Every structure is written in C-alpha cells, then in structure tokens.
C-alpha cells in the first residue's frame, strides 16, 4: 500500500469513541519497502490540495521520515520538496502490518500490501 492511500483512509467503526481521532490511522508493526516509481511533478502538484499535510507529517515522523513542516508557496519550482514528497507518498509502500484507529483502537490488517478495511457486522 502506498502512503498516498493511507492519507485518505479513516476508521469507519460505528461506535468509534471520537470521530476526531478516526484520522489518520497510526501504523503498528509495519514492514516498509521502497519501490521505484516514475516521478510526475504535475501529478504531485495536483495532489497537494487533496492531501492532509498535518496527517502526512504525523505519518512521516511515525515512520522515521522527514518532510518539510509546510508546503512551499510555489511547490512546482521546488525540486527538493517534490522529490521528498514523491519518495514518501509514491515510492514508500507498507507491505505488512496494521493500521490502528486512535479513537477506538480497531486494527486494520495490511497483508501483501493490501489493507483490509472490511468491518465485522457488529462494527457497521
């Protein structure tokens, strides 16, 4: 699972204790892998408004990566920023582990890079 996907996932458990803690899901016992991907600056710049930057920062710190504290004013002209963003959201993959909700502690397993977001009937 690419980290760009993680930035768009949240907990959907019916009785989650605090909706403000449903996002971002935190990682637990993850195995990461770097997979080269072609860089597309136009795509990265178009995705920026859709990304939750504070959540992305939280995730990067959790995984031991370093991203700038804020998006530069003109990211299209900032090659260093675009390379760091590309490497983190498109080349960093979670192969195994789980994501945990900060509100209800529900665990979403990740197997072979695929997150299982299905809930049991009593959780819907």
Structural classification: alpha+beta
Sheet of most strands: 4 strands, antiparallel
What spatial form do the alpha-carbon principal axes imply? globular
What portion of residues belong to β-strands?
15-25%
Total E-strand runs: 4
Description of the molecule:
With 124 residues, the protein is α+β, with helices and mostly antiparallel strands. The protein has one domain: Single Sheet (N-terminal domain of TfIIb). The chain is built from 4 helices and 4 strands; from the N terminus they run αβαααβββ. The chain has a 4-stranded antiparallel beta sheet with strand order 1-2-3-4. A hairpin with a 6-residue loop joins β2 and β3.
Give a brief outline of the structure.
The chain is α+β, with helices and mostly antiparallel strands and 124 residues long. It is built from four helices and four strands, in the order αβαααβββ.
Notable traits:
124 residues; alpha+beta; N-terminal domain of TfIIb; 4 helices; 4 strands; globular; protein heterodimerization activity; Trm112-like; Trm112p-domain-containing protein
Write the layout of secondary structure elements.
Layout: H1 3-6, E1 26-34, H2 41-47, H3 53-62, H4 79-91, E2 92-100, E3 107-111, E4 114-115
Family: Belongs to the TRM112 family.
Pfam families: Trm112p
Protein name: Trm112p-domain-containing protein
């Amino acid at each position: 699972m690419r980290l760009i996907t993680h930035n768009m996932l949240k907990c959907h458990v019916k009785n989650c204790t605090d909706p403000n803690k449903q996002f971002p899901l935190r990682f637990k016992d993850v195995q990461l892998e770097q997979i080269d991907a072609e860089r597309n600056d136009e795509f990265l710049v178009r995705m920026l408004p859709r990304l939750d930057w504070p959540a992305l920062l939280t995730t990067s710190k959790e995984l031991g990566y370093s991203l700038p504290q804020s998006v530069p004013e003109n990211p299209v002209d900032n090659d260093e920023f675009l390379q760091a963003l590309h490497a983190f959201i498109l080349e960093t993959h979670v192969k195994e582990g789980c994501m945990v909700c900060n509100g209800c502690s529900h665990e979403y397993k990740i197997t072979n890079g695929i997150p299982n977001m299905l809930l049991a009937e009593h959780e819907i």
